[in-house]
Amino acid sequence: MIVVRGERGGTEVVDFRLAHGEDPAAGLAARGWNGRSTGVEGVLGDLVLRYEVVPVTPLRSRQRPHGPGLDDAERARVRPHQRVAAYAVVVADERLLLTQLAPRTGAAGRWNLPGGGLEPGESATAAVVREVLEETGQVVDTVDFVDVMTQHWLGRSGRGAEDYHAVRLVHTARCPRPTRPVVHDVGGSTSDARWVPLADLGSVPVVASIPSALRAAGVPVPGTWPQS
Fold first, then answer.
1. Average pLDDT of span 100-112
2. CA–CA distance from 78 to each of 16, 18, 21, 63, 85 (Å)?
């Protein structure tokens, strides 16, 4: 379960359970609040997303799931799946730590931030530390939450009919002793890991969520990103 909790001036003013496929900001807007994400608490199964909010005119959500449509029979069979994952923006010596997605993923060859799904009973901070070590061999500390991003996919993919809700918890983290990246989780979702100079990011094929994650973390974003 994920709960979205909004506060104004230190007083809780809105609280709701995040529905499958729902974006927290859209859920707040539909209830008459505009919010800025301030933190995440708890562990997988009992997470709280905190927001600092101000009142606004309630805005009806116009969210639509991405992906090709399904017929009625497929909609009846597809099982909703929500994945909560934590990712880290790690910068050291003017270089950004990135991981390359393996062939088994839906975006093979593209580069992503290190991170992955929370395990049952695991906090987002603990997941960041574990995933960065597994995917890159780097030890990080000073993990700070910066933003939450969601995506709802309802359609057909290489895996068949899907109703998939991704909740991505973005953090910054410090790597006090950068080393040559090594992928320890062999056979998983990561095929390679590198420290990429910030000046070279514009030539790297990244997943679509990276520019927004870098902006949230205060990292300069290239003006043009490659599409392939």
1. 84
2. 25, 20, 14, 20, 22
